[in-house]
Amino acid sequence: MSRLFAFFARYKHWLVFLVLEIVALTVLFNDSLYHRSIALVATNRLLGRVNATISSVGEYVRLKEQNKSLLQEIASLEARYYMLERDIQRAAADTVRPVVFALDSGIRYSMPNYVTARVIRASNRKTDNYLSIDKGTRDGIAKDMSVMSATGVVGTVAAVSESCALVVPLINSKLRLSCRIKGRDFVGSLSWDNPSDITHARLSDLPRHATVKVGDTVVTSGYSFTYLPNLIVGTIENEELDHKSIQTTPEQQIDISSHTNFSSVPVRLATDFSRLSFVYVFTEQPSPEIQRLQDSLPTYGR
């Protein structure tokens, strides 16, 4: 209490000045309409700034909640966008009729029944690659059904569950596919073993008297319980043959018998495995008896 009295005693002149100033201003503003209006304008301006500052502080305090709400809304919109994009892609894939048959001598092939499936997981940089698709037994998918893209052979269904399936593609070292060269009827075995190149495979075991031309189409031979004949696999390319180069033109032929060191010819695959989004599973059931014999082999040959 003594400190309070000491404070008043020390600053009494300033206190008296403030009291007299307040009284003077009160008399001034109450006595004159002009001065009263000035006071009201100044007061409103000051109160407006104070209210704006308080509002800004309140908005800043609520900013965290607003950000959280916006993030939730963005996540919801992204989910809706993803679902819409997926539906559009699936609708577009369903309208595609796979061009998978290489026609010979005017023979017409009826399009087999197939199921459109989306690739949900894929590997393409390993020695033994696999694809996962979003269709299973409830969609009519079964083991050992052939799988196609819009442009050619993809692989074989290796395992299947109720809602998804596992596919062994051509870019798997365990898969062997019996193929022939369209228009020449030379039959060989297609295989792949180069993880650094998923665009090419090798066609080997061709007859020694066989001659092939750069640009020849490679198709399935039909010597399989899984694949129909004349399904497009790829084309012969002018690249390395057994790690040795042969210089040819599209009009020149490669004589297998004249290159005894060449055990295979390079084939550019018709399917682009780096951009594979949708596939088509042919729902033809393989023969159970042939399937049992095929499964007894050590290599997953087709």
Automatic annotation (TrEMBL):
InterPro entries with a match to the protein in the record: Cell/Rod_1 (IPR042177), Cell/Rod_MreC_2 (IPR042175), MreC (IPR007221), MreC_beta-barrel_core (IPR055342)
GO cellular component, one term: plasma membrane
Keywords, ordered alphabetically: Cell shape, Coiled coil, Membrane, Transmembrane, Transmembrane helix
Gene3D superfamilies found in the cross-reference section: Rod shape-determining protein MreC, domain 1, Rod shape-determining protein MreC, domain 2
Residue stretches making up the Rod shape-determining protein MreC beta-barrel core domain: 119-282
TM regions (residue ranges): 12-29
Residue stretches in coiled coil: 60-94
A Gene Ontology BP annotation from the UniProt entry: regulation of cell shape
Pfam families: MreC
The keyword Transcription regulation is annotated on this UniProt entry: no
Family indicated by similarity: Belongs to the MreC family.
Name of the protein: Cell shape-determining protein MreC
